# Entry
Amino acid sequence: MKRLTLALSASLGLMLALPAAAQFQKPEDAIKYRKAAFTVMASHFGRLGPMAQGRVPFDAKVVADNIAIAATMSALPFAGFGAGTDKGDTKAKPEVWSEADKFAAAAKKMQDAMAALNVAAKSGNADQFKAAFGETGKTCKGCHDDFRKE
Amino acid sequence: MKRLTLALSASLGLMLALPAAAQFQKPEDAIKYRKAAFTVMASHFGRLGPMAQGRVPFDAKVVADNIAIAATMSALPFAGFGAGTDKGDTKAKPEVWSEADKFAAAAKKMQDAMAALNVAAKSGNADQFKAAFGETGKTCKGCHDDFRKE
# Structure
């Protein structure tokens, strides 16, 4: 979460003054990026819902492959919440920035849950996967409830 | 490219009949996904442009970290070009589907260039990075010229 803390505490001026490490040229680029990273993560996570619910047969390889991608993606979107990215084409609530510590903690909770899910997914054990999938889904919902407009 | 070939040759009906492996519930989900994957890839690739052009100092870690993500992303978007995803909020030209073999070859060319760039990026050698970055950029442009509307 170093990057998030850094981004959240940096002024927009400071961000724009860091050409060597410039992640986004414009605030709207950061917003587009974070939404894209969430979209890819949610796609690979969400498509396993029916398997986690036992509605389709467990397939260890499908689970492991998709969760590995979701876990990789989980590290990315939070770099896109820097200062100056609160306005624009976004559903992010002002609390992302006004309660930055709480938001950072919610992000870390998701990332930790996703990492644990990745371990469970690699194990090939259906029950472990289902339990960890449910726990991870709760962290998604928790953060959406607090930090995303409907 | 197995997944792409599979997706491109499958009828929409067949795709929708594969619940266990269903990647996308609706064509618009696939379109949103592929655009998101390209957005994340382009962000991590594009931010290194100034460094590849020597306009900012070479930073081996920044290069390696960003290209590793771009290389991971390069595998993803082509699963989103399945049958039935030619209409909607997309700039993809009809040639993606009418010249599917050529599109698959262009996708592979980019993925191979990105893999070579990833090796160069990990080497920490600025000249190797710059050369491989340029080669990869050409594959992006080539595919956009042929398969993406302006």
In short: The helical segments of chain B are 2-9, 12-16, 27-46, 49-52, 60-73, 95-98, 100-123, 126-147. Chain B touches chain A at residues 19-24, 29, 32-33, 35-37, 39-40, 43, 47, 50-51, 55-57, 59, 62, 69, 72-73, 76 (CB under 8 Å). Chain B has a mean pLDDT of 89. Chain B has one domain: 2-9+26-147.
